[in-house]
């Protein structure tokens, strides 16, 4: 089952052989970023989920890191 | 090959029985004693382990075999190899035992991959250089671009074949986390470290995870940010929005949760296998897993 792993420590995920990795911004908040204002953080979270969907739709052959590139990532 | 047999009650209760078996082996010119497989049978396991321990004390090589839950494991046999739990597993158990025996007789040390249940013996060896020198050598190797040089290799992860992609807009997608997010008060008492299990909670019908109704009990980081907004651990609000827009076919009605903190690779692997089975049964085609 394709699984997108949202995590901050992508080197560990890569070493463990995780095929679809979505890079996040902090260990205690994999789907958030408290340094942002509430609305911006919500956009960041949506961007992370969009990246996860992109990862799930992409064929990969080994550990692959997907960066969040939507405008929410700014 | 010579075979000694004995009732398990007799072996365990008769004081001289164990030594007598070892003596019989010596008289037959035995060089190695194989005791078992005892499978899950308690008295048989105890007898096998005691024979193996006595044989080792007498200078013979000895291997016992039994199920990992067999109380015979506590009896001090130096080498015990895992077997199945019942005689139904005789074939695979004997094959494993034979392989371990061959390896042992070839002079190699057994490890967990051979089914070894007892702690391998530690041997003292002299390193070619003091630790400080070796550390500097490793650092130089690292600076020279060798990022694999190490004296302590990390446990090798089992290779995972990447699953084929899906079209998220038609798929049922599940939200998963090892971030320890549970209903406030942790009603099911999920452990905050070394979790032995996982749980599932219903999210169908909610458009976000409300602060105050959910609680992060992960013991590996400050949970302040997670409790202030639980969607930071399980991104339900964004996922519901994407489902409403048709970007996600449907969200699975529950999220699955455990705590990844001091978790052994074996436990994590078990959770993964159980999650995959659970989700497949529920018709889920893909997953988003948050890791802290």
What is the fold's blueprint, element by element?
The complex is a heterodimer of chains A (about 70) and B (about 290).
Chain A: E1 3-7, H1 10-15, E2 20-23, H2 38-56, E3 64-66
Parallel strand pairs in A: 1-2, 2-3
Chain B: H1 8-13, H2 17-27, E1 32-35, H3 42-57, E2 61-66, E3 80-82, H4 90-105, H5 131-143, E4 172-177, E5 181-183, E6 199-202, E7 214-216, H6 224-228, H7 236-244, E8 250-257, H8 265-281, E9 286-290
Major interchain interface with per-chain residue totals = A-B, 41 and 49 residues
Structural class of chain A: alpha/beta
Q: What is the arithmetic mean of pLDDT of chain B?
A: 93
The number of distinct β-strands of chain B equals 9
Order of helices and strands of chain A: EHEHE
As residue ranges, the low-confidence spans of chain B are none
Order of SSEs of chain B, N→C?
HHEHEEHHEEEEHHEHE
Tell me the strand order in the biggest sheet of chain B: 6-8-4-9
**Share of helical residues of chain A:** 25-40%
Overall spatial form of chain B: elongated
Rg estimate of chain B, integer Å: 27 Å
Biggest sheet strand line-up of chain A: 1-2-3
Percentage of residues in helical conformation of chain B: 25-40%
Could you give a short account of the major beta sheet of chain B? 4 strands, mixed
How far apart are the first and last residues' alpha carbons of chain A, in Å? 31 Å
Structural category of chain B is alpha/beta
Proportion of residues in β-strands of chain B: 5-15%
Q: How much is the average pLDDT of chain A?
A: 91
End-to-end separation of chain B in angstroms reads 57 Å
Largest sheet of chain A: 3 strands, parallel
What is the count of DSSP helices of chain A, taking H or I runs of 4+ residues? 2
